[in-house]
Amino acid sequence: MDFTLLRNIISRYCVGEEIWVDSRTVYIGHKEPPPGAEAYIPQRYPDNRIVSSKYTFWNFIPKNLFEQFRRIANFYFLVIFLVQLIIDTPTSPVTSGLPLFFVITVTAIKQGYEDWLRHKADCSINECPVDVVQQGKVVRTQSHKLRVGDIVVVREDETFPCDLILLSSSRHDGTCYVTTASLDGESSHKTYYAVPDTMAFRTEQEVDSLHATIECEQPQPDLYKFVGRINIYKDKEEPVARPLGAENMLLRGATLKNTQRIYAVAVYTGMETKMALNYQSKSQKRSAVEKSMNAFLIVYLCILISKAVINTVLKYAWQWSPDRDEPWYNHRTENERQRHVVIRAFTDFLAFMVLFNYIIPVSMYVTVEMQKFLGSYFITWDEEMFDEELGEGAQVNTSDLNEELGQVEYVFTDKTGTLTENNMEFIECCVDGNVYIPHAICNGQILSAASSIDMIDSSPGGYRREHEDLFFRALCLCHTVQVKEEETVDGIKRGIHQGRPTSFYISSSPDEVALVEGMKRLGYTYLRLKDNYMEILNKDDEIERFELLHVLNFDSVRRRMSVIVRSSSGEYLLFCKGADSSIFPRVVSGKVEQVKARVEQNAVEGLRTLCVAYRRLTQSEYEEACHHLTEAKLALQDREQRLAQAYDIIERDFVLLGATAVEDRLQEKAADTIESLHKAGMKVWVLTGDKMETAAATCYASKLFRRSTQILELTKKRTEEQSLHDVLFELNRTVLRQRSMSGLSVDCLDFGLIIDGATLSAILKPNQERAGTGNYREIFLEICRNCSAVLCCRMAPLQKAQIVKLIKASKEHPITLAIGDGANDVSMILEAHVGIGIMGKEGRQAARNSDYAIPKFKHLKKMLLVHGHYYYIRIAELVQYFFYKNVCFIFPQFLYQFFCGFSQQPLYDTAYLTLYNISFTSLPILLYSLVEQHVTMETLKRDPSLYRDIAKNSLLRWPVFLYWTCLGVFDAVIFFFGAYFLFDNTTFTSNGQLMTTNTQMMFGNWTFGTLVFTVLVFTVTLKLALDTHHWTWINHFVIWGSLLFYVIFSLLWGGIIWPFLNYQRMYYVFMQMLSSGPAWLSIILLITVSLLPDVIKKVLCRTMCPTATERAQDQDELSQDGVAESTPLSSRRSYKGTSTESSHVHFGAVEMLSLRRSDPLPQKLLAHLAEGGGADLRSLSPYVLRLSGAGFAHYAPGPETSV
């Protein structure tokens, strides 16, 4: 009896737990394996549905209510509302219930709408059409219906719907070309391979006939790692097993390029794809201002409870005497007499809580929500943040974090597509110390490529001409560039010449494309790779053919690549290009010093440099190299190490030919933006999946790293030479030693840190602490704190989020911002306090998942320095002002209880209690929080250091909060006792009315309360008017209109008998009060006394120790009044050119000292004038101008530059 089936089932489910957990078996085309093979056990996998939304139709109400009632204020008002329903309180339950219902409803509608937009975006992705092979035919279905094991057909320029294993392609060699821009930020073309046994399939019938299974690891988020194997069954033979790696796997979100179609099998679908695993789950982000509001609410809640306790205790102490406990005019009922004293005391305590609960107004949260929602439109409407090329402006996906834009301390930015355009430009090359510049300018004429070479080398010697030819041939042959002869790519017309499509280049490295195009401009054109022969067109219009024998691919450890070719004459040549540090040690001859000098000069200017060398191989040397390479490629174990050893043996004894210089174009004003962020006190980190060399060059070009910056490396290469423990402690000692010396030296050394993904993983491993080898995280953070900039390269998307989370959780708890443009940036965008997506070329995943979206990186400057600054100033004033005006409102009510026997008698009329926060005082502060500009926009952009004045939540710190609270208490005491003492002497008239002897005004409870309330409304409104710096007609209308509305309402409320009211206690009170002249005088006097201390305090502080913002305000006022020109602020410079009769050049607040090659010519001319060149353009003669692909640029005089 055969127990194979039973044994397999038992081993899978019982014994083989590790196999079951750590691997999965995918049946291609859902076909069972043949009899005798492993048992067919169908496994359940998720469908291909992607979910980025937060709510569903069923859980929206309970989940949203739970999140809203986590807010202290909402929960508090719910409790107050329930108390008002349960017991008899001085005020109606409607006063708390209606505002609470309004706040909850408005917030739920806003958050529901935002989530509906996310649902809509998910549906558009999940319902995308996908072609699947079923029973030998192509069937179209929707993306969310894909299952693991389905064979998918993907055509050129289509995006992969899930994670796939490549089976075959339309290319004969079984390869396909892919861009992974939305995953790792690299828009270059990458090559992926099908296994040899399946690469020959060309039709759906052939693919459907495949009988195979794939065994692979369970889903994990590492984009660059995949381990598996494919078992191919052929008739009754043993299955053929082939290894599968990352080079066979096509990831969801990547795009097929330069390949007509492919057949692939789905292995990971839906939320198990690597892209989805790298998404952070959406969580509710809360701003620092909201956290401060909650802290202040707890303080005011404590004050409220204290007031209620004090009044309850004093009430029972005052009523200890029998005549006070039950006076003749207020006899108790029988139930009240029988109720226990503890119950009565608790009921009174709750009644006092309700009476004083207006100290925490629910209207503040309504106003804050409205301010955030309406204020977000200022970003959307900003014309300076509108991009003409995209035809779009900035977008606000959530308005809850507006003020957080003004509190950012760390900026984490992607590189490719965010800082750079990923568009390389060939600048120059140097052969044996002679510089070659394509399209050089000489005597005002643009020279063609060929003539420029002839001009530079008018009489080259034989040796020099040979090296020149070898150099250009090396760059035309040593690359992995493909030639595409189509009219369009990515929907953009390219290579059009006189209406005819011509060829253009694509590659996995944009540097290689730039070099090959640069050679084309210098007369050597790479034509094609056909039948393993590379063809080039030399400057004599002759086609040269070289057989491509071997490619020694580039890797980040060697930092070079090589090719071995055979010329038409049978000569074997090894061409190599790479970083100077990897080429120079392997060179045995050539003009090393001259080339090295030029390389160093180009590197200082932020250009990407490569050195080029060659070696002639004899027949025996070539055969030996072939033996080493073949042996290493066939190895199944340690293949990478063996290849590295083979490359090391082959790549030596070079003859140096020269070097190249390539510029990666930064986005417009990217360097200026980073410089402004630094001046504003922010630390900028670059997190990229790109290579270290590429990223470092970009950091220099964008001024993240400067010439004086000392670079600290924390990379895999270094940790292989030393232990991670030793490297970390060595770097920590370096930065701490410099910090201790910085107090003694004027010139403080600037540090920049470079770390790669592998080293970061080692630092973040939790077992480090358990092993007792030290807390690596804390040491790493200490190093980072002392570095002005940090570059993290070779980062997986989840590692980017881990970096952000690490900084967020550090002891300072800084506010973080993440900005990126691809799906690989979504995780860090969701993790950071503020996430900003760029509407770039790499899809809209980042923009869709971000809090804010902007067209270009340069717009970040205005978003933070202007909009963020304004938002924070406005909402900080709004929060403090709301607490202040409610202290002024409720504290007189507290004092009044001492004069009414603690009877819970309200001081103010019910209408005043209800409308104070809703109508009388809410609109002025709402408008202030929308349009206030304490300094002008131009000043904020010109002087980024003003951002430091509001850093670390400075306007909502406890000292500021206590000042506002004490000011409110002081004003409340003035209101109450001022009115009390001014109208102290009262007598009864003949008809029984209470009349003041000094003012002859009828005086009673409601008259006294109305007088206090009138002073209160005018004082808090005028306090806001004094704080307003930016006056417009709408400010005047709202502030004076609110006061006028109060007066008109009081006249109407007290001047008419309202039939729907059971009582009319305010009838004629307001008019009687205003009919008294002393009452007018008292109101004016009390308002003046209340406002005076705050005015005096501001004048003294502004005079004795003004802040940078106050100095900027004074400067703005002087500029507006015409008293002075725009005097530079602390971080500004002023350049003046020489004055002539007809011209005067003045440059203020524009840094022009750091000039780069690709800057526009007009700016160079202005900069030269600014440095004293005047208006005479002939003074520019030391400069040699040229026209590059980017437009006009300049050359400062350089060593051995022959043009």
TrEMBL record:
Membrane topology, from the record: Multi-pass membrane protein
Taxonomic classification: Eukaryota, Metazoa, Chordata, Craniata, Vertebrata
Family membership: Belongs to the cation transport ATPase (P-type) (TC 3.A.3) family. Type IV subfamily.
A single GO cellular-component term on record: plasma membrane
Annotated catalytic residues: 414
Cofactor(s) recorded in Swiss-Prot or TrEMBL: Mg(2+)
Biased composition (Polar residues): 1127-1140
Name of the protein described by the UniProt record: Phospholipid-transporting ATPase
